[in-house]
Design goal:
- The chain has 154 residues and is α+β, with helices and mostly antiparallel strands.
- The protein has a single domain, classed as 2-Layer Sandwich (Yope Regulator, Chain: A), CATH 3.30.1460.
- The protein contains four helices and six strands, in the order αββββαββαα.
- The protein has a six-stranded antiparallel β-sheet.
- The longest helix is centred in the last third of the chain and has 26 residues.
- It is elongated.
- The termini are far apart.
Length: 154
Amino acid sequence: MNLIDPVARFFESMGWEANKLEKVPVITSGLQLPNGEVDIYIHAHEDTGRLLVYVRPKGLEVPPDQMRHVAEYLTRANYGLPLGNFEMDMQDGEINFKNSLELVNCELSPEMVRPLVIVGVETVNHYLPGLRQVIEGEATPAQAIAAIEVGTAH
């Protein structure tokens, strides 16, 4: 099952520059969004038919004393999301928004990749200002989520 080629065609259709990593089935890209910059990593696991999409905010460092607060913020953000979720490495504070797809008896198309990437990009952009407030100690997780989710529904 070829997963990398449809992913590459998705990036081409969007006009986004993307790079295939050597020796591993991963395509990367970077985007400047209204609320910050992100890196996109798409891992294609040909043997299982699984596609993993990670959208990672750039330039964020979570101080150890803020990890608990950031974890709470991300948990609050995750509640009710219709597709994907935030995750944080509790060792180094790396944050991703992750989406995935497992293909059974079908071929991957660029149209199938699109919602995984677009939802990730839009969700990270939406929650990034509150995430920064929590990291900088300017708001509690509850305050930051309340300010961001005003008038929104998942």
